[in-house]
Amino acid sequence: MGISVSELLSVVVPAYNEFSVLGEFHRRLSDVMSATGMGYEIIYVDDGSTDDTVTLLNRLREEDPALAIIELSRNFGKEVALSAGLDHANGDAVIIIDADLQDPPELIDEFLREWRNGYDIVYGSRTDREGESWLKITTAKWFYRVINRLSDVEIPRDAGDFRLISRRALDALVSMRETHRYMKGLYAWVGFPQKEVPYLRQPRAAGETKWNYWRLWNFALEGITSFSDVPLKMSTYLGVLTSTAAFLYGLYFLVRTLFLGNPVPGYPSLMLVVLFLGGVQLICLGIIGEYLARTYNESKSRALYFVKGYHPARSRAAAEAESRINL
Ligand code: UDP
Ligand code: MG
Predict the structure, then answer these.
(1) Start-to-end CA span in the chain (Å)
(2) 327 residues of the chain, pLDDT tens digit each
(3) Cα(125) to centroid of ligand 1, in Å?
(4) What are phi and psi of 253, to 5 degrees?
(5) CA distance 45 to 307
(6) Is 251 left (phi over 0), alpha (psi -120 to 50) or beta?
(7) Cβ atoms within 10 A of the Cβ of 274, count?
(8) In terms of DSSP H, where are the helices of 95-162?
(9) Which helix H or strand E contains 85, and what residues bound it?
């Protein structure tokens, strides 16, 4: 091949309206990356920001040849922004990190150490959820309990997207083009040796979170429907259960009518049964609907995202790696 095979690290940073932290973030991340002594590229994915994020990124790129920018055509959400970054990563390993400094860049050293030890996926695990409400912590706990009970893969509870992924795990990850991308599930699903690194998650340095409870709820639905078909099967068992109950109830009435005659009471119990069964049926229809909608979306197999502008890193290491990977 004739190309010197030096190792390259890619860092993927999804950024949506992060103007207020990006300058400081880039400084801290660059310090860490240059201290590794390895070649690196930092890929910022602008997820359709409406503030001056892109202007700032372009300015930073003029001074830093390791910086690459992918501008998406609109806001696609973090999961898709991440996928765009991973698709364009040329490194032998790729690191995913949030732009808001909640994930300390200094932990990357530790990630690299574990990668050298042979782990394919090294992920940060929050030891403490500082600055998060009681409600968010409790709902998160329940969500992981439910999803791990329902799905075949074990999704670690306190892990986010902050992680290092080896080339072979990355290739596996980017080969999955599903529209409904529950990344935490996908990381677990690809397998490979995985290692957890505990860290203290900081509160946001500046700007504000894009997550509210409604988005979290939808995120949870996404996770469960992407990685489990148990809710679909649940309606079967629920049906069996209610018909058994109905049968026993019917038997009871038959015996009672035979021995005690029929004094026509039972309006409340009739109402109760009708309403209960109606409710159960609607819930089951809803569950089917959730899956049907996703099947519909997947069947369209649309592109995951569109790129408005791509400015690759200009550094030599990045260029070499790109030609090596595209061979
Ligand atoms: N983000 C994105 N697209 C979105 C929402 C968020 O690329 O539609 C990015 C955001 O810029 C940040 C990361 O995803 O780098 C995490 O977002 P945020 O801090 O709002 O989430 P939280 O940390 O509160 O879970
Ligand atoms: Mg954040």
Answers:
(1) 9
(2) 344 457 899 999 999 999 988 999 999 999 999 999 889 999 999 999 999 999 999 999 999 999 999 999 999 989 999 999 999 999 999 999 999 888 899 999 999 999 999 999 999 988 876 667 788 788 888 888 888 888 888 888 888 899 999 999 999 999 998 888 888 889 999 999 999 999 887 777 777 776 778 888 888 888 888 888 888 888 778 877 887 887 788 788 788 888 887 767 777 778 778 877 887 888 888 888 888 988 888 888 889 999 999 999 888 777 777 777 666
(3) 17
(4) -70, -40
(5) 10
(6) alpha
(7) 10
(8) 108-116, 134-150
(9) helix 78-88
The pLDDT of residue 2: 40
Residue 95 CB coordination number (10 Å): 28
- Expressed in angstroms and rounded, the spacing between residue 96 Cα and the centre of ligand 2 is 13
> Which of the ligands is closest to the CA of residue 183?
1
**Is 67 exposed, middle or buried (CB count within 10 Å of its CB: 0-12, 13-18, 19+)?**
buried
Half-sphere exposure of 124 (CA within 13 A, CB side): 26
Query: CA-CA distance, 180 to 223, in Å (whole number)?
Result: 9
User: Any idea which residue has 């190309």 for tokens?
Assistant: 3
Among 98, 130, 209, the mutation site with the greatest number of ligand 1 atoms within 8 A of its Cβ is 98
Contacts with 315 (C-beta within 8 Å, 6 or more apart), sequence order: 39, 41, 65, 66
Beta strands in 134-249 (DSSP E): 159-166, 194-201
Beta strand 93-96 with 39-46: parallel, antiparallel or unpaired? unpaired
Nearest to 84 by CA among 15, 185, 29, 28: 15
CA-nearest of 98, 88, 49 to 72 is 49
Structural tokens at position 49: 């920001």
**Closest to 94 in 3D by CA, of 35, 171, 156:** 171
Residues touching ligand 1 (Cβ under 6 Å) are: 14-16, 18, 47, 75, 77-78, 81, 98-100, 102, 209-211
This prediction has a pTM of 0.78
